[in-house]
Amino acid sequence: MLEGLMQDDFPLTLQHPLERMRSCHPGAQVVTLTDSGIVRAGFGEVCERIDRLARALGSLGVEQGDRVATFAWNNQRHFELYMAVPCVGAVLHTLNIRLFAEQLTYIVNHAQDGVVFVDGSLIGILAPLAPTFESVCTYVVMGEGDLDALPNALGYEDLLARAGSDSEGPFQYPELDERQAAALCYTSGTTGNPKGVLYSHRSISLHSTAALMTDALGLSQHDRALVVVPMFHANAWGIPHGAALAGADLVLPDRFLQAEPLAKLIEAERPTIMGCVPTIFADLLRYADEHDVDISSLTNAACGGSAVPEKLMRDFEERHKVNVFQAWGMTETSPVASYSRPPETGAHDDAYWTLRAKQGKPLPWVAARLVEDDGAHTPWDGSSTGELEVRGPWVTSGYYNDESGEDRFDEGWLRTGDIASIDEHAFIQITDRAKDVIKSGGEWISSVELENELMAHPDVIEAAVIAKPDEKWAERPLCCVVMREGAAADAEGLVEHLRDRVAKWWLPDEFAFVSEVPKTSVGKFDKKILRKRLSEDALEGRVKVRA
Ligand code: AMP
Description:
By secondary structure, this protein is an alpha/beta fold. Among the domains are: 27-257, Rossmann fold; 438-544, 2-Layer Sandwich (GMP Synthetase, Chain A, domain 3). Helix 7 (201-211) crosses helix 8, helix 9 packs across helix 10 (278-290) and helix 10 packs parallel to helix 11. The longest helix has 17 residues, at 43-59. The model has no long low-confidence stretch (mean pLDDT 94). Bound molecules: adenosine monophosphate. Adenosine monophosphate binds next to strand 14, strand 20 and strand 21.
């Protein structure tokens, strides 16, 4: 082999974006919404605080490879931890604040976290669990909060003040290997215990670079990114790291995630980019429809985490001049692996929207394939489906200290558990989670497609479709829907609405009119709970209908 003569040993570590924040974009801003209004800091000032934090981590005895946990909303201090912890060689473990108590205990003990940084506003949730954490020696409270509620608790600002500043000589970050672990996130685990995905400096660096691609999120120094997707979920889709690299402003809503404060924040701060799940976008749309508020600065909102209804994207564009694009990914894929940006050929006609409603093309460096039950590869014809498998430098190769014995890999490819088709333009369309598909009379019915078509009805707020056991067909779709107040449509009306939109044998013969679709800790429809209610005959509002 004739080796190339490039500087291939230049490490892809987060120390590089940190340095760029300091030297290339000191004026870029971190904006946080707080109880007492907006707090702003320039990247230059934030870097100075990150250096102090890096020093402070040393004083707490944190060493390379140690896990440092956060239990926090999206705010400036959390961002400081995002940079400081990996840059000293330790591992940032973002705890999902919405998990059940037993899962949090399991995760902290499994990760062997030594220090936990907790928002003062979240102490009430964390403190009762502290006695169950085996490895935690120190808590650091961020913002106002009762230090006495936790053992060995320090205040974040005190810690930084005591850590000193660059006047004592600049902080010397250690030399790191790009393959070194930088961050740890646990999957929200629909079966069994949550599993840890351990990101490396290299994987985060490459994934953040992808966040700057125009065919993906397209983050640049001219953007302001509103990060609604939690920083405790899959690195907030890489937006904080991408913003550091690009020099984009970060707008962080802390715990103010309801439609009203978000809409007001958008109107006041004029972000260009935003990332969050469809349920929050749907709330924002309802609010913007009913109030006089200008959210049109959002020229590039990214939505994902579950399928994004086409109608939601169309309504945003037509009524508010907001472009919402769909992304697909998983905690295991850092998370963004595909993005739906069809070519702009002029008017947004039906063909364009058909592509926009798909999950999009795999990003550069992400390889995708579809595999059938017998191992055969599914053709990319836009209709044949198989399990989606992916490979790439920001896709996990295994789980951290996994004891489950479950094998999610196929010749080095990650089996995603998503069923999909891929068309001739390489646009992926997720038709279901493998465990959510409905098999009726030996044929597949896509619950995602039925949900999208139902949510296109003006009276339907939410729709989650699950399989119902059926003597004749093995399974039939049962549509759990939340109707708008004062809705005129009933079950028959919904079937009529679906009649021209889906195959005849997909038409549901039963609905459950529920007051709310239960959600998981990361805001997705929790069909597990609906299935459980169905099996226990506890599902409310059931109505049979003749299709
Ligand atoms: P998580 O690891 O919690 O982010 O969940 C990943 C899973 O969310 C994927 O395997 C998909 O099932 C689902 N998901 C994420 N984005 C989308 C999307 N745009 N459309 C459909 N499903 C999605």
